[in-house]
Amino acid sequence: MERTHDLGGLPAGKIDQTEHELTFFDKRVDALYVLLTSPKKAAFTMDEVRRTVESFSQADYFGLSYYERWLKAMSLLLIEKGQIEASALDIPKASS
Amino acid sequence: MPHDHPHPTSRDHSEPRPAFDKLLSQVLAKLDHSGLLTSAEVTAQIEDMEGRTPTEGARLVARCWADPEFLDLARKDLPAAAAKLGVSMPAHPVFLLLENTEELHHVVVCTLCSCYPRPILGPPPVWYKSRNYRSRVVVEPREVLAEFGTVIREKANLRVVDSTADCRYLVLPLRPRGTENLTEKELADLVTRDSMIGVTNVSM
Amino acid sequence: MISSITRHASNAKFADGHSVQVIKDESLGHCRTPLYVRGAVGKVVSYIGSYKNPEDLAYGGSGLPESPLYWVEFNLAELWVNYSGDPTDTLQVEVYEHWLRKLAQES
């Protein structure tokens, strides 16, 4: 299970070097992450975000985009921390 | 080692799905309402991020090449050196310079997630965060560098640096020969993002 | 070369050049020691500093006491049986002290 994110040395293919501009969605999720993990807001730590992302299914870890993964993890943490009620968010179910 | 293994396709190349766009709106609205995070703060943070690009790193590299005293400072205290160029960096994590020489080439990866010196290079490129780069560069770095068109000098040692915990690294590429008469600005224009990650060299 | 950092290593158990083995345990939760170096023998390059423990931070803890962190260097040809690169190629990883055990020094 814990292997999902821990990729060093696993067999893998050619690296896709295509450049991609961040979308507006990506930028807002990025900003959310930086702000909420900052010492000033401290809603949760970077390590809590990592722990949450690492608990995702393989299908979610690799199937979601990078920023979709971050958003899903932060949403779960905001609920875990009591900042937002679970009923207020429609978190997409894990794909299997 | 690389083989054709069926992996799910990365979604990092596409627009977010509507369900995630909706979730983001819900989170932002809730946080704005509770006062934890205002939309003005989000906008300001996006602006800050957009101002952090590999250009900052390239200016730092060029100054290191041009000014031995600055290089000395960058070796000891990279954030202090960056501050001299007007680039602010947080107190943590620890930012460090990995100095390439004729004898030693560095290449940086984060096999566990996507750690990257964001204050001086901006957000990492998609390939840096990809499964294939993170898996392979620690086991076949020379093949990975070859994919980026980079051949390490035969006598040079190669050091792969896995950014696993509290450190973020900026590679100081080797200054190319024949650049003695260039201005600092011209030097900075030669420096690419990928050379500061260590997957390429700087060339004229 | 790596930038020098000036921190006091008073609480650090391992000195530069010590041979160390990364503990092979399975981690029970979040941790920052990659699986591919667990059980591997390397050499302490230097002490970096002491930082909040991510294994505690990840579950809402304070991360205290801070844990000493080291750069540990591995020889890639020793790490991977079929390593195809140069025998002098190395890998450097940041490893927390509680993931390391000292090996007897070769004479």
What does this structure look like?
The complex is a heterotrimer of chains A (96), B (204) and C (107). Chain A has 96 residues and is an all-alpha fold. Chain A has helices spanning 24-36, 46-54, 58-63, 66-80. In chain A, 45% of the residues are buried. Chain A has a domain at 24-88. Chain B is of the alpha/beta class and 204 residues long. Chain B folds into 2 domains: 18-48, no CATH class; 52-197, Nitrile Hydratase, Chain A (Alpha-Beta Complex). Chain B has a two-stranded parallel sheet. In chain B, strands 2-3 form a two-stranded parallel ribbon. In chain B, 46% of the residues are buried. Chain C has 107 residues and is mainly beta. Chain C has 2 helices and 5 strands, in the order E-E-H-E-H-E-E. Chain C is globular and about 45 Å long. Classes of the chains: A mainly alpha (96), B alpha/beta (204), C mainly beta (107). The B-C interface holds B 1, 74-76, 78, 92, 94, 96-99, 101, 104, 111-112, 138-143, 157-167 and C 1-6, 32-34, 36, 48-49, 51, 54, 69, 73, 76, 80, 82-86, 88-96. Strand 3 (157-162) of chain B pairs parallel with strand 4 (90-96) of chain C.
Produce a short descriptive summary:
The complex is a heterotrimer of chains A (96), B (204) and C (107). With 204 residues, chain B is α/β, with parallel strands linked by helices. Chain B is built from eleven helices and four strands, in the order αααααββααααββαα.
